[in-house]
Amino acid sequence: MLRAMRSHSRQLLSVEEAFGKNGWHCERVEGRDVLRAAFEAHHTKVDLVAQAHPQINALSIVGETPVPLDPVRVPVLLELLARANKQLTLGGFEYDLDRSVVVFRITNLFERERFDPDLISSMVHCAIAETDRITPCAAVVRRTPADLLPDLDLQRLLEREDFLPPVPGDQEEEEY
After folding, report:
1. Which of helix, strand or coil describes residue 116?
2. Is the pLDDT assigned to residue 1 strictly greater than 50?
3. pTM of the predicted model, to two decimals?
4. Residue burial 150-162, b: 16+ Cβ < 10 Å; e: rest
């Protein structure tokens, strides 16, 4: 018996339109209300998933980047992500232990079936920026010798401004 192909929801179509308006390449995942995309950020490549939840008019944006760690470093990275989450207003970090991937997830509920393109763009920018921001911190955890991990000050690591990517157009003009 042939099963009819499920069409994509109006919600996902509005997400796809927002991606198109921003010039972002994305691919649909067949049979699901999901788009996949990849972005080159300042520190890392961010794999992005946008999933519409039509039943509740919600959109989840998930940014991921691989961070393979040996078992002794995993608890340190988990603490780093927990400390980073305390600073966040929207979204949150996770570590997928099965895939060795740092995940940033942000979800929003919308009033209408057509999602606001500016909110979609903001969610995507947020997921990319946060994933990119945590990457050099995770790299420090990965590179720190095991015997020095207890001395690693994770709070200070999160405050390092030299890890922040430059903000476009935020350079001071030279004086002549």
Report:
1. coil
2. no
3. 0.88
4. eeeebeebbeeee
